[in-house]
Amino acid sequence: MNENEQNELAAKLYSCIEELLPQVGIKHFAGDEEGLRFRYNVTGDDIPMSFILRIVPDAGIISLLSPFPFNIKENSLVPVSVALAASNNSILNGSFDLDLKDGSVYFRISNCYGEDLIDADTLGYLVSVASNTVDRYNDRILALNKNIISLDDYLEWIDSMNNGQ
Questions:
Q1: Which are the contacts of 149, defined by CB distance < 8 A and separation ≥ 6?
Q2: Do the Cβ atoms of 16 and 23 come closer than 8 Å?
Q3: Complete DSSP assignment for 35-94
Q4: Nearest partner of 56 among 64, 48, 66, judged by Cα
Q5: Does 165 have pLDDT greater than 60?
Q6: How far apart are CA 16 and CA 90, in angstroms?
Q7: 33: closest CA among 50, 49, 12, 51?
Q8: Separation CA 15–CA 76 (nearest Å)
Q9: Do residues 111 and 55 lie in contact, with contact meaning Cβ atoms separated by under 8 Å?
Q10: CA-CA 20 to 30 A from 62: which of 36, 109, 119, 161?
């Protein structure tokens, strides 16, 4: 597929997602058609969550990102890195990423698209997995960053989740 075809398909996908977001429970969002992005917020159990859904035409993917509303302190980079690696090991779809330069953390889940674009079930799945995963982990990552819990406490929590406790 040449660049023109990729961009045409991405524009169709943008319109499709714009129509589908309200169907999957995202009623309030900001679209950026030129940047092929949507932004929306979700209120979780504790920390408010922001999401950026972006279309990457040259890769043929939809990527849903959730940047955390805090950065990791320099003295917490190592324990949080270990905690995020343990978290990623227990997550079936998606992953947490940490930028060591600025301490920013975000969750990312992606899906390929093609001529058939995306349906409400697939978009709903991405939105649901991202929201539930971020909500489950963000408060504990924040607590670890603030030294409220130890890395051992965090790893025990991960272990208990993996063992169904």
A1: 140, 143
A2: no
A3: TTEEEEEE--SSS-EEEEEEEETTTTEEEEEEEEEEE--GGGHHHHHHHHHHHHHH-SS-
A4: 64
A5: no
A6: 32
A7: 12
A8: 41
A9: no
A10: 161
Q: Is 108 helix (H, G, I), strand (E, B) or coil?
A: strand
CA angle 100, 40, 108 (to 5 degrees): 35
Domains and CATH numbers, the chain: 3-162 (3.30.1460.10)
Distance CA 74, CA 24 (A): 38
- Tell me: pLDDT of 9 over 80: yes
- The phi-psi region of residue 94 (left if phi > 0; otherwise alpha if psi is between -120 and 50; otherwise beta) is left
Q: What is the pLDDT of residues 73-89, one digit of tens each?
A: 999 999 999 999 999 99
CA atoms of 62 and 9, how far apart (whole Å): 12
Q: Are β-strands 95-98 and 37-42 bridged in parallel, bridged antiparallel, or unpaired?
A: unpaired
Tell me if 51 sits within 8 A of 146, measured CB to CB: no
d(CA 18, CA 27): 10
